[in-house]
Amino acid sequence: MLDLHKNEGTMNGSATPLRAWVLRRGYERLRASAMLKQSALVFVASSVLNVCGFVAHAVASRQLGVTVYGELYALISTGVIAALPAAFVGPVIAQLAAEFRALHDDGHLRGLLDGITFGFAALGALYVLIAVPGAIPFARFLHVPAWSVPVVGVLSGIALFVTALRAIAQGTQDFACYSLSSIAEGIAKVVGIALLVALGLRLAGGIVGFVCGPLAAAVYLGIRLRRRYAHTTPHRVRYDWRRILNAGAGAAAATIAIALMGSADVVLVKHFFDAHAAGLYAAASLGGKMLLYLVGFVPTVLLPQAADRHARGARTREVLYGALGMFALAALGGLFIFKFFGLFVLHALVGHAFDAAAPLLVSYGLAMVMLALTNALTYYGIATHRLAFTLPLFACTFGTLGVIAVAHRSLGMVVEIMVIGNCAAALAVALALVLQRNTGKRRSTL
User: In this predicted structure, what is the pLDDT of residue 1?
Assistant: First the structure.
């Protein structure tokens, strides 16, 4: 007679090693995943940089007082706006570096490094030359001392330079260099501000302290990249400017969409609602943007990985799926915290006076998650030369803001529009990428 229990035990015994083998292989593949390691590095470095930024502002605001800190914050915001072109060219530089790396072409990488170093050093000097004669009118507009404007020119110029060099490290997948430069920037910023303000320099100490951050990153990146290619003969790079401009337009579209969808709604709410409601919305926006920054490491790693594979003619879909998997885990974790601990998050950020913003937090967080997804997909499009997403992205961005301007009966309604608009933008970009997947052979910007 057939012993069913014996056979069942045999089958379970044979299945157990199989399951263990599958799990072990999966764990080994996970450990060996370059994308996972790179994502962990960038995530830690960006977290350190963001925390240091928060600490720097906390130190400055407490030591300088309301009036002087207001001047400092206005100057820093001006510097950020002036350095905005870096957000347009950074992805393009990273794409170029990734393509050279895929071809094992260190000569052209050295040529790219030399050209970027010279070009952006000259651009930084131009910023200072513009800031010096424009110091008085800019100072009158911002109500700050005239001497501070050229210092902001220095800050913006160095920030441009750092972004360009960091993009080369990103494109060549040297994420140790990329991450250490971010950590150096954050620590130098905090130390510089703390020391200079403690010496009684006040506004001068604050603004020069902020310059210390990107300056430290520039020195580190310059030394690290120069040593890496010190023994390589530079080759002249011949650029396909039409494709570079197209890629730059895609990066500009993504940057503008992120800036508008992440900030313009706050401006509209401030205009259409009373001060109390606008304050509650600002608190929800501040909390929701934590998720936008939480998953910000994904495009940084996705772009060079996808560009590298695309340049070699390999499939890029697996890289995208892996990046979206990490994106989903981080986003769902953040939304889970907002759902069950949202009130504690608000208390940590803005105190107990904004508790009425708690019902908006999860929905606004979802809107920011979809905005981050849109950003990741646009970077994938830039890496694979699929740039048809530009017009649909602009249409969704301005359409969302237009609907808010017309229909804003409550804060909840504004947040719902933000969720729908960002979902539509993500779907539009994804559809544009799908429709372009077989539009031609591998293209290069070189």
Answer: 42
Q: Helix or strand or coil: residue 280?
A: helix
Can you spell out the DSSP letters for 119-159? HHHHHHHHHHHHHTTTHHHHHHHHTS-TTHHHHHHHHHHHH
Q: In terms of residues, how long is the chain? A: 446
Q: How many CA atoms lie within 13 A of 32 on its CB side?
A: 6
CA dihedral (50, 52, 54, 59) in degrees, to 10, reads -170
Please give the single-letter amino acid code of residue 129.
L
pLDDT-based confidence at 288, cuts 50/70/90? confident
Q: Is 63 exposed, middle or buried (0-12, 13-18, 19+ CB in 10 A)?
A: middle
Taken in order 294, 378, 422, 252, the sign of the CA dihedral is: positive
SS3 content of the chain, % helix, strand, coil (to 5): 85, 0, 15
Q: Is 298 exposed, middle or buried (0-12, 13-18, 19+ CB in 10 A)?
A: buried
Largest CA distance in the chain: 101
Cβ proximity of 295 and 327 under 8 Å = yes
Residue corresponding to tokens 């290619």: 229
208-219 pLDDT, tens digit per residue, is 999 999 999 999
- What does the alpha-carbon distance between residue 77 and residue 66 come to, in Å, rounded to a whole number? 16
Question: HEC profile for 308-350?
Answer: HHHHCCCCCHHHHHHHHHHHHHHHHHHHHHHHHHHHHHHHHHH
Q: What residues contact 74, with CB distance under 8 A and at least 6 apart?
A: 142, 143, 144
Question: For residue 379, which of 92, 46, 83 has the smallest C-alpha distance?
Answer: 92
